[in-house]
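fwd from M.: "can u put these together and see what the complex looks like"

so here's what she sent:
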Amino acid sequence: MAKSMYLLWGSGSPPCWRVMITLEEKKLQGYKHKLLSFEKGEHKSQEVMDINPRGQLPAFKDGDNIIHESIGACLYLENQYKSQGTKLIPDSPAEQALMYQRMMESNTLSEKIGTVLYYHMLVPEGERHDSAVKRNRENLTAELQLWEKYLENVAAGSYLAGAFSLADVVVYPSLAYAFQYGLSAERYPKIAKYYNLLKDRPSIKATCPQKWFQQEQRAEMLKGI
Amino acid sequence: MAKSMYLLWGSGSPPCWRVMITLEEKKLQGYKHKLLSFEKGEHKSQEVMDINPRGQLPAFKDGDNIIHESIGACLYLENQYKSQGTKLIPDSPAEQALMYQRMMESNTLSEKIGTVLYYHMLVPEGERHDSAVKRNRENLTAELQLWEKYLENVAAGSYLAGAFSLADVVVYPSLAYAFQYGLSAERYPKIAKYYNLLKDRPSIKATCPQKWFQQEQRAEMLKGI
């Protein structure tokens, strides 16, 4: 089944990582894939544009079925392979509600991280303001404080919505990304605990962006957040 | 069952409307609800903040289960009440893939509409630039052209992912919103056809924001997009 699948991805991209974790958890190893370079602009290549007209990664196909929205791909894979590998959507109404809630809240988290990290890419030089940089950082701090609270009781086996679920698949890469860019484990101890509890999970270890290990020095863009 | 549910909502908000359409489609009428006023800042009231710490609407509860992310609430309701009312997630892999894809792509559409409509609310006076306004409008035009293409073959019973599905529940309110703010039906004939094909669907008619009928003149903020 996995042979019908094709993933175009970029190393270090949280949305790409989500899909790769899901494929591991659902025992769908053996899918075709191609690593592209953001630096070389390969995410704007014709091959990507044919799958994802916005020229973003991941670009994912299962046979003729195209899903390039990462959360959409995760939901599709879980629903198509329900009884295979890890069950990623809990049955109990309470856990399921929490799972969907946290999974969808990840968009706000990613957006606030991206607004800080990519300010200079997103905003042309003549439109940049120190006041905006400051506000973006304050907004990210408030957002991370929410997640720190959500993870108040984190422990092995008790993650964002109880057992490991799509909420973790979707949120974990963004939080790992934040640490990669210098987020303080001292300031966010619960998020750091969550990060450490899951970093050796086989699906996560097998797919953890190699790029990050090649950086000699960690970026420090989120230091002080 | 619906009696255990409580929805805090604002009239004219596409995310609130999504949840209301889903409740109608799933035959969950009879839920408790309260209409709040954005103009009076009631979305920042303690009652909302207790459910949604970001102070946004909708704020939705089913018993003790809280889901304030609108797409999360729609997914939860469909999964909890699978065999009741309209089936909103198709079984066929091809339709399901397309449904998840379009549903999740709605975030990009909403964000680009919001960036144009709320520029003066989102960006403080000293940070505003005509070049940003122009770019935001161009980005929205490109985005709407994509949706115009997605709806190339729209017809009764053939919507965003075939039969009426969560893709329509989630996307329709944003497109209806755009017309409310002056989007040109001549420039986007397929989107306009889609809008008209669904506007009298019972779930949509029953929940269509009353606020819009009270406006004597339509806003024209999206004219020329």
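replying to her w this: The first strand of chain A starts at residue 5 and ends at 10.
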